[in-house]
Design brief:
The protein is α/β, with parallel strands linked by helices. It is 51% helix and 10% strand. It folds into four domains: 84 residues, Arginyl tRNA synthetase N-terminal domain (Gyrase A, domain 2, 2-Layer Sandwich); 94 residues, no CATH class; 112 residues, HUPs (Rossmann fold), CATH 3.40.50.620; 180 residues, Isoleucyl-tRNA Synthetase, Domain 1. The strands form four sheets. It has a four-stranded antiparallel β-sheet with strand order 1-2-4-3.
């Protein structure tokens, strides 16, 4: 289905051609003066020089050609040469009817769907998630959902940090606490226990203690590095312990990510590509891509057109150890071999920009990816406190993500029970749903690359550009539809009618923008466009609601038309919040 602006532009282009001008001048855009018109065309201004005519004359001639248009209800030529446009109610109705009948509300599906891998999450095992993890999870999940809705095959990968020195630190810390565990007996030949010798709480205590000790005690750090080496070289007891660490951590991560409606298709980590690294390094050497520099193995990725310094991409350190670069390149290799993606999108802190530039250039230079494979870095800004600095707890530490979620739920619960008679259990369930909307919308409504201020009071407000405001609007619509059914109405028998007032038409016009917005949100990997759209749509609905009798409408046909408009508005709003990764309760 064509976007409405495309159809309006086609109609305008024909009018320009009939008037004797280039049809390309007929581009129609949304009005920047909605108080004057709904759409506008400035083509006469651009054509004045080309045709050596006053723009107002061109505009008037074009307007004359549209006198009998079935698309435009009103076309006015305004000095010095603008065309102010209003669409006809009949055309608007037919467009919405076509949207309503389409499974994706008029969003065209791609002829050749892409296979996309989205790398988001990036949690480290044996460590709790903190507020710094929220943006990658929330943005990545939304992009995954948007791209799927737009018809692409999308695979989400958490890409765990599960293989470096941190593993050696955890194992060493555990050995100090429980030295008699069978895992540390390298002569042991039997089966290892199926139950982990620690809980997630104990695991989360071990790592920070071991990390702090390694910074003060060189001997301890050397032990941790040796434990890392034993793990990576396949010592059975260390591998068995590592599997326990992974299982306990992943179970906890799934619970925490799940509380934000964030899900991954793949729970792969750095460890999955460990065995690919030797062959990949040998290939890079044999093909002449990699060379030694100060003892390290590097690939030069600088290009002649660079205006800033791009250092070589290091593949192995001087001691032969691999780095994050090595692991990320091997991960690209594995993804290409297993999944053959058309695009890989990395949702990572924007401060990693240079690092990913090096990795992507290295992957292309060494032909780990096809020339047409897209490698995209989507760098996000930081979540800051009201002081403008990275968000901290009141004590100045980094807040755990589960604590942030709990505090938001508590705040939402208080606002829901304030002045309302609602059962406690229901209030808690609603608070949980609305709190997720507050956190996610508060994040996603900002352009990903920008920093933003986390303001729990504003984010949990039922007024303004917030998640709870959007949900309140949806619940208001649901309430009206429920009452309509209680009055004996049947939602499957209602049908749209032409707009009869300005607020009704404004709502209908806002609905027509859905398919263009969703296409742009996918193309630009921009969830904030969905947020901006539903905020405008919610405002348009609420303005319409306050100006229109709906359930009190005495004309049954007119009432059914209004109800049909509410059903379409509800469905589009719920589609949008679903791709943002949250849902609406039945009542609030």
């Amino acid at each position: 289905m064509k976007k409405i602006l495309e159809m309006l532009t086609e109609e305008m282009a024909k009018a320009f051609e009939k008037a004797g001008y280039d049809g390309a001048l007929g581009k129609v855009t949304l009005s920047n003066r909605p108080d004057l018109c709904e759409y506008q065309c400035n083509g006469a201004m651009a054509g004045a020089k080309q045709y050596k005519k006053a723009p107002i004359i061109i505009a008037e001639e074009v307007a004359d050609q549209l006198a009998d248009s079935k698309v435009f209800g009103e076309v006015t030529a305004v000095a010095p040469g603008f065309l102010n446009l209003k669409v006809s109610e009949a055309f608007l109705l037919s467009y919405l009817e076509e949207m309503e009948a389409d499974a994706k509300f008029g969003l065209e599906m791609p002829e050749k769907p892409k296979k996309i891998i989205i790398d988001y999450g990036g949690a480290n095992v044996a460590k709790p998630l903190h507020v710094g993890h929220i943006r990658a999870a929330v943005i990545g999940e939304s992009i995954k959902r948007i791209c799927r809705y737009a018809g692409h095959e999308v695979i989400g990968d958490v890409h765990l940090g599960d293989w470096g020195l941190q593993m050696g630190l955890v194992i060493t810390g555990l050995q100090d606490r429980q030295p008699d565990l069978v895992y540390f007996d390298e002569t042991y030949q039997g089966e290892y226990p199926t139950e982990a010798p620690f809980t997630i709480s104990e695991l989360e205590e071990i790592y920070p203690a071991a990390s702090a000790k390694s910074k003060e005690d060189p001997e301890y750090k050397a032990r941790a590095m040796e434990a890392t080496r034993k793990l990576q070289s396949g010592v059975p007891g260390y591998r068995a312990l590592w599997k326990h660490i992974l299982a306990v951590s992943v179970a906890d991560l799934k619970k925490n990510y799940g509380s934000l409606n964030v899900e991954f298709d793949l729970w792969k980590g750095e460890s999955d590509v460990h065995d690919l690294i030797p062959d990949m390094v040998a290939y890079m050497k044999e093909e002449g891509y990699a060379h030694e520099s100060e003892g390290a193995l590097v690939v030069d990725v600088k290009e002649e057109t660079d205006t800033k310094e791009i250092p070589p991409c290091m593949i192995l350190k001087s001691d032969g150890a691999s780095l994050y670069n090595t692991t990320d390149l091997a991960t690209i290799l594995e993804r290409m071999n297993l999944y053959h993606p058309d695009a890989i999108i990395y949702v990572v802190d924007k401060r990693q920009d240079l690092y990913f530039e090096q990795v992507f250039r290295c992957a292309r230079k060494t032909r780990l990816v096809k020339p047409e494979t897209e490698l995209k870095f989507l760098g996000f800004g930081t979540m800051n406190g009201k002081d403008g600095k990275p968000f901290k707890t009141r004590e100045g530490g980094v807040m755990r993500l589960e604590n942030l979620i709990r505090e938001t739920k508590d705040e939402m619960y208080q606002k829901i029970i304030e002045g309302r008679h609602i059962p406690e259990e229901e209030a808690k369930q609603v608070a949980e749903i609305v709190a997720v909307s507050a956190l996610k919308y508060g994040d996603l409504s900002n352009q990903a690359s920008k920093d933003y201020i986390f303001d729990i009071d504003r984010f949990t407000s039922f007024e303004g550009d917030t998640g709870p405001y959007i949900l309140y609007t949806i619940v208001r619509i649901k309430s009206i539809l429920t009452k309509y059914k209680e009055q004996g109405g049947n939602l499957s028998e209602v049908s749209l009618k032409a707009a009869q007032n300005e607020s009704e038409k404004a709502l209908m016009l806002q609905l027509t923008q859905f398919n263009a917005m969703m296409a742009a949100a996918c193309e630009e990997t921009a969830p904030h466009k969905v947020c901006a759209y539903i905020y405008d749509l919610a405002n348009a609905f609420n303005h319409f609601y306050h100006e229109t009798k709906i359930l009190g409408e005495e004309d049954a046909s007119r009432k059914a038309g209004l109800i049909a408009l509410l059903v379409l508005t509800r469905d589009i709003l719920e589609t949008c919040i679903d791709v943002l990764g949250f849902s609406a309760p039945e009542r609030m």
